[in-house]
Amino acid sequence: MNYSAEALNQLEAGQLDKFQENFDLALKNDDDDLLFSLAEELYSLGFTDNAKRIYEQLLTKYPDEGQLKIQLAELAIDDQDDEAALEYLTTINKDDPNYVQALLVAADLYQTQELFEISEQKLLEARAIAPDEPVIDFALGEFYFATRNFNKAIRIYLQLIKAGTLEIAGVNLVQRIGVAYAQSGKFEQALGYLTQIKPVDMNPDTRFELAFTQFNLHDYGEAIKNFEELRETDPQYSSLYSYLADAYIQQNENSAALRTIQEGLGVDQYNEQLWLKAANIAQLVGDDDLVQKYLQQGLAIDPENLEIITQLANWLIKHDHFQEVVDLLTPLQDEEQFDAVLSWNLATANNHLGKIKAAKHNYELAGIELTNDSDFLKEAGLFYRSVGEIEVAQDYFKRYLTLVPSDFEIETLLDENL
Fold first, then answer.
1. Cα 357 off chain centre by
2. Count of CB atoms within 10 A of residue 106's CB?
3. Cα four-point dihedral sign 46, 52, 53, 54
4. Which residue of 60, 107, 154, 283 is most buried, as measured by CB atoms within 10 A?
5. DSSP, residue by residue, 172-213
6. Which residues pair with 169 in a beta bridge?
7. DSSP 3-state assignment of 168?
């Protein structure tokens, strides 16, 4: 028995010391074909350092062998040594039979580095050299799919299907086309492809895209059916819960929507957008305590989330928790994201707390932008009237009445002040 075979037997038996002894003997005594096969086996088993030693030894004997350079490049990529990988790949000659494979490996590497233009160039060069090779077309299609250039990806996938290739590397091309259409917002076309996928081939991602497509086509019953089936088969698929809840809402099943979003929070409790949606659904079912709880949970995850801050401030004002509004918003006043609506909320809270100077300051800030908000104009006019600034109040009332001319109460107040 040769040393390479003996080393593999000892490795399989867990005799690592004897494996290393025979590995070293194989490097010295076995022929190059045996060593190359041993390297491939070791690489597949995860013994990359040993495989690398063999490839490096062989490369000293065959310095122009492209296959060895590709193997070493892939090992370098595994070690996150991109520079070494590219050095191996770029030294492979164009007349080497492995040159096209080197272009594909390089394209993948450049893509991981987000050098998409270079990656595309490598793939197009490979395609020009081997125009009838389906694997290259597939690689180019996958590149366009990954970079969200869905129209180009669809064209390539269709060409492959027309040529009789329905699946490559375990990827169903009909499914890819359906997902590409869905991701580009062409839901009618997407549905035509996604419904062709057999149940046995319906993986979680495909099931999600099918339900997502049906949701966007307003076929909420079918969307719910597929989202629920996805939940049963893969309850950790966190993206489904938000859409399933929305589908229930469209069917006026708000209680089911709340239960669904609560399940989603159990799966993805650090998603502040999920907490925000949960608060909105709790509001639909009229559970005010849950609204506050969920907004505070979301804010704890992302204290700078403007939408959550605004909704929580609105809730606090609605329930007369004015000091809590001041405590929430005052520290944020100097932040760039502090907008007119938050200024209005802070003005309202300060007004109710009798902090007239602070209220006036925030009404002024809010008034710069909220010139067409009738609710704000009315509230601000009433505030300025209450503090004796009649002319300012009249200005707000006049602008308000252009938007709500039927409010006779405000019209009377305006007439009285004239």
1. 45
2. 25
3. positive
4. 107
5. EHHHHHHHHHHHTT-HHHHHHHHTTS-GGG--HHHHHHHHHH
6. none
7. strand
Q: How far apart are CA 352 and CA 371, in angstroms?
A: 22
DSSP state of 82: H
Q: How many Cα atoms are found within 13 Å in the side-chain-facing hemisphere of 265?
A: 22
Which residues touch 364 (CB under 8 Å, ≥6 apart)? none
How far the first Cα of the chain sits from its last, in Å, is 111
> pTM to 2 decimals?
0.77
Torsion angle of the four alpha carbons 219, 225, 231, 237, in this order, in degrees rounded to the nearest 10: -20
Residues contacting residue 354 through CB under 8 Å, at least 6 positions apart? none
Six token digits for residue 91:
């030294």
Q: Which residue has the tokens 């099918």?
A: 210
> CA-CA distance, 180 to 186, in Å (whole number)?
9
- CA–CA distance from 238 to each of 73, 220, 262 (Å)? 36, 19, 12
Strand partners, 168: 171
How far apart CA 173 and CA 101 sit, in angstroms, is 22
pLDDT digits (tens, 9 = 90+) for 342-391: 999 999 999 999 999 999 999 999 999 999 999 999 999 999 999 999 99
Q: Are 136 and 154 in contact (CB under 8 A)?
A: no
The two structure tokens encoding residue 310: 């605004």
1: helix, coil or strand?
Answer: coil
* Alpha-carbon span 310 to 318, nearest angstrom: 12
* The two three-digit tokens of residue 374, written as one number: 């009738």
The HSE-up count of residue 176 (CA atoms within 13 Å, CB side) is 31
DSSP 8-class letter at 372: T
